[in-house]
Amino acid sequence: MVSDDMARVAVVTGSSTGIGAAIAKRLSREGFAVAVVARAEERTSATVGWIRDNGGTAHGFAADLSRPEEIEDLFTQFDARFERLDALVNNAGMASIADSTSVPLRHWNRVLTLNLTAPFVAAQCAHPRMTRHGGGVIVNIGSVYSGMSVSRRAAYVTSKHGLIGLTKTLATEWAPDGVRVVAVAPGYTETDHVRVAMEDGGFDAAAVVRRTPMGRLAHVDEVADAVSFVCSERASFVTGSTLYVDGGWTGYGGV
């Protein structure tokens, strides 16, 4: 068990691959012990193994975050391993591309549950564990579509807009408790998740590159670096805001 005089501790959801794995590894390099969370525990083995091989502390946890009771159980299991919680990164989520005239309500509910309700429930679980030791930081992973929109993304865009509203509300409410809440919003990033979204949406990386002022996709380490900053004391007066890591995507008004 990690005790109070040892490493700070972070929970990173959806951290078996992609952005989440990069965040878990980056926080480990910054001295955090990391709870690596995925739908199945065996999926955490690569990230956990990398952290341990590089001298860090990590444990894998399984949870279906679309089920609130499993989120609560996740934190109960977490308590058996760790005595404190300093950072929660709500990274797990899903994309959704469908015509708004025909998207099934069950699919709408699934996207909103995973992308918005799950971060809220996880934040509720994290709050008492953070305040017990003086505070902490919650990082919600948004998207360029947290502040803009595009057709055929009604569920996804709504969930990511909602996540920014949740970030602002919790930041305002929990600041007196020493809990900062910040959103990090990546642009299109070089991950399998994005490649699948491109295939489903009928566009390719070249189209994204043309639309991005910096002329490329983001690297997962660039997103992880932003999260690392937000979780550090260098960001001690940062709360309720959104840091875009998008190569100028949201600032550009062209097509």
Question: What's the count of strands?
Answer: 7
> Could you name the CATH class?
Alpha Beta
Overall structural class, as computed from helix and strand content, comes to alpha/beta
What is the H level of CATH, i.e. the homologous superfamily? NAD(P)-binding Rossmann-like Domain
Number of helical elements: 8
Mean pLDDT: 94
| CATH architectural group | 3-Layer(aba) Sandwich
Molecular shape: globular
- Beta strand %: 5-15%
Q: Tell me the major beta sheet.
A: 7 strands, parallel
- SSE pattern, N- to C-terminal: EHEHEHEHEHEHHHE
Classify the helix fraction into a percent range.
40-55%
State the end-to-end distance: 52 Å
Q: Domain count, please report it.
A: 1
Describe this structure in words.
The model has no long low-confidence stretch (mean pLDDT 94). The protein has helices at residues 18-29, 45-53, 68-81, 105-131, 154-174, 192-201, 205-211, 220-230; strands at 9-13, 33-38, 58-62, 87-90, 136-141, 179-186, 242-245. Helix content is 44%, strand content 15%. The protein has a single domain (9-189, 221-244), classed as NAD(P)-binding Rossmann-like Domain (Rossmann fold). A 7-stranded parallel β-sheet has the order 3-2-1-4-5-6-7, sandwiched between helices. The protein is globular and about 50 Å long. α1 crosses α8 (220-230). It contains 8 helices and 7 strands, in the order βαβαβαβαβαβαααβ. By secondary structure, it is of the alpha/beta class. It starts with 8 loop residues before the first strand and ends in a 10-residue tail after the last strand. α4 (105-131) links the parallel β4 (87-90) and β5 (136-141).
